[in-house]
Design goal:
The protein is mostly helical and 154 residues long. The chain has two domains: 81 residues, no CATH class; 69 residues, no CATH class. It contains nine helices and no strands.
């Protein structure tokens, strides 16, 4: 229902990577307005300059998800600062893997023109063949890689 309402009200589906693109483009527009205006990619994500952060609903969505998650953890008494890891992985190694995986996912999201949630939820709902192939490939990759990384968690 949320996805359907997003299409009806906003005219586009859900996703997360667009919010980060808007944040970066707005930052560039704030620091170097002439450069941002001359660059088509920055102009597309920040058409109103730095004020685009206040008008881009995906950015506001991500801020709301962050605040909602924090509020939920605080209210339930589950908030803590910790690094979840297996017994055979150091904190530094776990953080390095998380950073490396995040960077790879970010690059992949830009190359694919959509993040995992956008591809799976929005593209899948639109019956996009590429999105359905992505979903199948993501699950297949997860099942293939799981035995390799399981040793670090057990």
């Amino acid at each position: 229902m949320v996805l359907l309402l997003a299409f009806v009200i906003m005219g586009r589906g859900l996703g997360a990577s667009g919010a980060f693109s808007t944040a970066i483009a707005s930052g560039v527009a704030l620091a170097a307005p002439d450069h941002a205006a001359a660059n088509a990619a920055y102009a597309a994500y920040a058409p109103n300059g730095p004020a685009s952060l206040l008008t881009d609903w995906l950015f506001i969505e991500i801020v709301g998800v962050t605040i909602g998650g924090l509020a939920s953890a605080l209210l339930a008494g589950r908030f803590r600062i910790a690094v979840d890891r297996g017994p055979r992985v150091s904190v530094r190694g776990r953080l390095a893997c998380a950073l490396g995986g995040g960077v790879l996912m970010g690059i992949g999201a830009k190359l694919a023109r959509g993040c995992t949630s956008g591809q799976a939820l929005t593209g899948g709902a639109l019956l996009s063949v590429g999105s359905w192939l992505f979903i199948l490939a993501a699950f297949a990759a997860g099942y293939l890689v799981a035995p390799l990384v399981r040793r670090a968690w057990t």
